[in-house]
């Protein structure tokens, strides 16, 4: 097989479908609602508790609800494509596996390699944010974390290592190392607490809405001293680009395909259910939040809690803060699960050492990549400031969206006869919307993000050409 042919060799969909029915690497323990909880856990987080208020204050005003709607439509385009592949190829690995089936080995490797970094960094970012919530709560009850353990070097005088951020990543890693259903049950409980808190915000806040706070719904466009424009429809679009990163996360549940009891039926449903439920909550919270407090007051670290404090409802603010602490754990769970399953899939296909492609004989989990990723994310969360890590988390996910949407179009033309338990409607229009929006968002990313991305891709190419290409399972066929 020639060099170029090796780069584009792919796993036929029929082969993957046959393997899905025969593989016994994982125990099938996840039902529809546990899968949906993983998706909601990955989506609902800082978007509700932080971004809705901050983007209303900074860019969109009350029209931040429109920003979420725009972002939701774009994300839904990708979600529909994920749903089609999840039902068609119920194999762990998500976008990596789907790309392997349609675009070939090199493209699949690059997207898997990128997602491995992105998911791990998302875990680190959320862990650092979680640490801030916990430290704030502890200080409010008179417990002070030692100064050296409060954050990474450079985040404050005397800071050395963010112990709480590192500890929570190790804890989530331990949950995922033991039986998957244990972690899934815990995650479902945490997601239920988070959803209940959002319902509380909506249910109580609705009685305190002052419609005058919604006027004007789209504030007049202004240009700040830095030359950047805010408000107007351009501000709404800017906010949509920011909050878009709060409306993905459903892709993580597709990495658990081989742990689903009925993947061809439940995975597409879980993808669409998790996004639909999350979007309904985002829109409702955006309207209630900007209705109970003027948008200009919402640029705080905890805008939802602060808005209820402004109403004198301190008990609601406490519940929201506690729920945020618990709720962010589900985000950690979703993305740690996604990262470990992608690593497992890469190793099982021979692109990374096969030592990582073993499941624990007792717990039935990919314990080796889970432990390694747990230690890696703990070190990143403990040693680096959140701003530096957050800059790096977007490219891989957006690239995956482009791969998935493109692959749906290609496979519809190449193999229209394949039985699909779910079909993306209005192909190619829907996939093209997902592609276009992802390209636009990629163009908005800062130069430093692209530089780090290129370094990571270059490292990935060295590993693939030096190891993966020669050890690929397809090399032996």
Explain what the structure shows:
- It contains 19 helices and 2 strands.
- With 477 residues, the chain is mostly helical.
- The chain has a two-stranded antiparallel ribbon.
- Helix 17 packs antiparallel against helix 18.
- The longest helix is centred in the N-terminal third of the chain and has 36 residues.
Average pLDDT reading: 85
End-to-end separation: 11 Å
| Proportion of residues in extended strands | under 5%
CATH class: Mainly Alpha
The run of helices and strands is HHHHHHHHHEEHHHHHHHHHH
Enumerate the spans where pLDDT stays under 50 for 5 or more consecutive residues: none
CATH homologous superfamily caption: Amino acid/polyamine transporter I
How many strand segments?
Answer: 2
The main sheet comes to: 2 strands, antiparallel
Can you name the CATH architecture? Up-down Bundle
Share of helix, binned = 55-70%
Task: Give the helices and strands, then pairings.
Blueprint: H1 3-8, H2 13-22, H3 32-43, H4 46-60, H5 64-88, H6 95-102, H7 105-140, H8 163-177, H9 180-205, E1 222-223, E2 229-230, H10 232-243, H11 251-254, H12 263-292, H13 303-310, H14 314-348, H15 367-383, H16 386-390, H17 395-414, H18 429-443, H19 447-471
Antiparallel strand pairs: 1-2
Helix pairs in contact: 3-9, 3-12, 3-14, 4-5, 4-10, 4-12, 5-10, 5-12, 5-17, 5-18, 6-7, 6-17, 7-8, 7-14, 7-15, 7-17, 7-19, 8-14, 8-15, 9-12, 9-14, 13-14, 14-15, 17-18
């Amino acid at each position: 097989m020639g060099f170029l042919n090796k780069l584009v060799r792919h796993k036929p969909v029929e082969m993957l479908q046959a393997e899905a029915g025969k593989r016994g690497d994982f125990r099938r323990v996840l039902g529809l609602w546990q899968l949906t909880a993983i998706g909601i856990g990955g989506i609902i987080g800082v978007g509700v508790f932080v971004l809705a208020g901050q983007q209303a204050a900074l860019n969109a005003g009350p029209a931040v609800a429109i920003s979420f709607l725009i972002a939701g439509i774009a994300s839904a385009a990708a979600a529909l494509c994920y749903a089609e592949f999840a039902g068609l190829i119920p194999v762990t690995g998500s976008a990596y596996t789907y790309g392997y089936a349609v675009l070939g080995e090199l493209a699949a490797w690059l997207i898997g390699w990128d997602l491995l970094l992105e998911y791990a960094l998302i875990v680190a970012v959320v862990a650092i944010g979680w640490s801030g919530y916990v430290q704030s709560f502890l200080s409010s009850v008179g417990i002070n974390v030692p100064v050296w353990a409060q954050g990474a070097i450079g985040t404050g005088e005397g800071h050395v290592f963010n112990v709480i951020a590192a500890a929570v990543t190790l804890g989530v890693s331990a949950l995922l190392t033991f039986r998957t259903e244990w972690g899934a049950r815990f995650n479902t409980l945490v997601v239920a607490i988070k959803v209940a808190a959002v319902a509380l915000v909506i249910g109580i806040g609705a009685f305190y809405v002052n419609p005058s706070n919604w006027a004007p719904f789209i504030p007049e466009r202004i240009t700040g001293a830095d030359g950047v424009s805010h408000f107007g429809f351009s501000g709404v679009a800017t906010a949509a680009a920011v909050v878009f990163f709060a409306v993905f996360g459903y892709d993580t549940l597709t990495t658990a395909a081989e742990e689903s009891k009925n993947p061809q039926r439940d995975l597409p449903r879980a993808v669409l259910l998790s996004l639909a439920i999350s979007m309904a909550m985002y829109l409702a919270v955006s309207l209630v939040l900007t209705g109970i407090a003027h948008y200009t007051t919402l640029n705080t670290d905890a805008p939802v809690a602060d808005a209820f404090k402004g109403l004198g409802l301190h008990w609601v603010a406490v519940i929201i803060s506690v729920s945020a602490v618990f709720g962010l754990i589900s985000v950690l769970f979703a993305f740690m699960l996604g990262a470990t399953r992608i690593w497992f899939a890469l190793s099982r296909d021979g692109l990374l050492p096969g030592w990582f492609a073993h499941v624990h004989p007792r717990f039935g989990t990919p314990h080796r990549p889970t432990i390694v990723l747990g230690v890696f994310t703990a070190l990143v969360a403990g040693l680096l400031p959140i701003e530096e890590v957050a800059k790096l988390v977007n490219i891989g996910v957006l690239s995956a969206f482009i791969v998935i949407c493109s692959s749906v179009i290609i496979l519809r033309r190449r193999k229209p006869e394949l039985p699909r338990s779910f079909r993306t409607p209005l192909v190619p229009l829907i996939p093209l919307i997902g592609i276009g929006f992802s390209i636009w968002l990629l163009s908005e990313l800062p130069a430093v993000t692209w530089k780090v991305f290129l370094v990571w891709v270059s490292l990935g190419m060295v590993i693939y050409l030096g190891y993966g290409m020669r050890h690929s399972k397809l090399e032996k066929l």
